[in-house]
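@channel sequence for tomorrow's demo:
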Amino acid sequence: MNAQTGFSTTHESEAPFGFDELFYSRTDTRGVIQAGNDVFQRVAGFSWDELINAPHKVVRHKDVPKGVFCIMWDSIQKGNPIGAYVKNRCKNGDYYWVLAVILPIEGGYLSVRLKPSSDVFQRIKEIYPQIVEREQREGLTAEDSADLLREEAATQGFSSYTSFIAYALGQELAKRDDRLKRTADRRTRILAEMNHALEKATEQQVKLLRSFEALQSVPNNMRIVASRMEPSGGPVSAISENYKASSQVISQRLASFVGGSDNMCERLSREVARVLFLIGCNRVMSEMVVNIDKSVPVPQIDWMEEQALLNRLEAKCTDDARAAMSRAVGYAAELNRASADIRRQMLGLDTIRVLGRVECGRMRDVGGLSTTIDQLDSFHADIKERLEAIMQLSEVIENAMSSYMRSTA
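C-alpha cells (generated this afternoon):
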C-alpha cells in the first residue's frame, strides 16, 4: 500500500480492454451474479463457473472508497438508477477502471460499464486515494465516506452527487465518441449544457439569498439612526419599517425556491440530472443490445432473454427521460415566474430606498443616515447583478430545453 496515496502498489498492472467494449452483468437483489458478457469474463479473468452465482464483490478492489458502494446501494434499493467510477480487481491481481451504470430491474440489478477517460475521471483518481486514506486513518463509516464524496461533488459546483455523476456520464460518452471517431450525441451535449447552466443559476440564487439575509440588518440600523434624528413614528422610522417588511417578503420568496432540502431549484436540478443520466443509460443499453447479439454462447446464460431485458430497459429509459424532462419544464417555468416576481418586488424596494435618500438630503444627513443608505445602494447593486445573471442563465436553460424537446420529437 502506498503510504501517500492509500492505493495498492503491490505488483499489479492495468488489464487492457478497448474503448469500444462494454461490460455487462446482471445480479439478483443480493448482488449475486446471474449473467454477464464475454468482456466482463475475459478482463476479470475468472471462469464462468467462478462468476455465475458468485457475489459481484468478487471483483471489488480495496482502493475504492466504501462511500461509493454506500451511495450505489442506497440509490438502487430505492428503485433509482445510479452511476459510479469503480476500480475492479482481476483474478490475477491486476485491475481495471470502469464507469458503471447500474439500474434496478425486477428481481435484481443490471450494470453496463464502459472505459473512462475524461477529465472527470482523472480527478476521481486523485480523490479516491485521499478518501480511502481517511477511511483507514479515521475509521470512517461507509456513510461518512459517502458524505466526503458528496462534499467533493459540491466543491466541483454540483448540487448533488446525482448531478455530478450524470455530468460525468455525459462527459465519458462524449470522450468515448471522440476516441471511436463517432458523431457526438446531440442530446447529451444539449443536456450537459443545460445541467451546467442550471448549476451556475443555483449558485447565483444561493448567493442572492445570502445577500438578502445580510440586508436585514440595514433597516435596523436605519431605525437606530431615526431614533436619534426624529420623534417616534417620523418619516425615517416609517421608511425603515416599510423597507424591512418588503425585504422580508422577498427573502421568504427566495427561500421557497432556494432554501430547504427540496426547494424548487433542487427539484429542477434533480430532474435535469435524471434526464441526462437516463439518456446516457439509453445509449449504453442500445449499444449493449447489439453487443449481446454478438456474444459467445455460454451454457448458463440465455442470451435471448438478456437481450429482451436490455430492450425493455432501453425503452424504459426513454420513457422515464421524457417524463423527467416534462417535470423539469414545469419547474423551470415556475422558477422563471418566481424570478420575475422578485424583479417586480425589487422595484418597490428601490422606491423605498430612493425615499430614504430623499429624506437623507432633506435632513442634511443628521445622525449618519447617508452611510446607511449607501449600504442599501451597495446591496441593491449586488442583488440586481445576481438577478441579471440568473435570468440570463434561465434563458440558456429554456433554450436548451426547447432544443432537447425538438431533438426528441
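heads up for whoever presents: Residues 1-9 have pLDDT under 50 and may be disordered.
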